[in-house]
């Protein structure tokens, strides 16, 4: 989800300016409808929806004009695949509270990837987390809520801060247990806040300590989503397109 899709129109489909084009994605349990913007007479652009599972869906290009019935201009198949970022997000979400797994993630830290790689990883994993269907009872600190803040342990927040993942840290802060994780010490006595300070991650430290800290700039911050029952409407401000998602 949230990739840019370009639609090339054939000569016969290049029509008057008052025609509006939509893409309709029909999956097994969910349907998405996206508006498009015209780049030129022969090209449209929109944002791919975040889908609920990996499958091949039918995509219909529809044309709408005031006072006329909606026309299906063309149909194509579109495949949603599970990439490495989604796998990583799913692994991390499942391992919240699992000390063995969280200690293993510290192995990643020893390689200290270049800043550009960290930025790419941060954007992709944070975006994948947003598209995960997290259980209602999911918590940053894991399933065992009987543990007190005094018990030293690794948390997902330690992981995100240790690698300098700004956007993932912000996402976790908004989830249940996110704020509580800030005061938890690991076995070395470090909290996520002290880790950020120790590593010189100034922006990250501000994010964790300042009350009015704003969400870091990212592709996902360009989107605003409103949920209502089985429906959600998302506005992508970057391309100024809308996405309606409905349970089929």
Features:
alpha+beta, elongated, 7 helices, Immunoglobulin-like, Ankyrin_rpt-contain_sf, MAP-kinase scaffold activity, Serine Threonine Protein Phosphatase 5, Tetratricopeptide repeat, 248 residues, 2 domains, Rho_GEF, AKP13 protein, 7-stranded antiparallel beta sheet, 3-stranded antiparallel beta sheet
Strand content: 25-35%
What's the number of helices? Answer: 7
Name the helicity range: 25-40%
Please summarize the sheet with the most strands.
Answer: 7 strands, antiparallel
Count of folded domains: 2
Shape: elongated
User: What's the CATH class of the largest domain, please?
Assistant: Mainly Alpha
Please, what is the average pLDDT? 86
CATH architecture call of the largest domain: Alpha Horseshoe
Say what the CATH topology of the largest domain is. Serine Threonine Protein Phosphatase 5, Tetratricopeptide repeat
Structure class: alpha+beta
Number of beta-strand segments: 10
pLDDT < 50 stretches: none
Rg result: 21 Å
Order of helices and strands: EEEEEEEHHHHHHHEEE
Strand order of the largest sheet: 7-6-2-3-10-9-8
N- to C-terminal distance: 18 Å
GO molecular function: MAP-kinase scaffold activity
Protein name: AKP13 protein
InterPro entries: Ankyrin_rpt-contain_sf, Rho_GEF
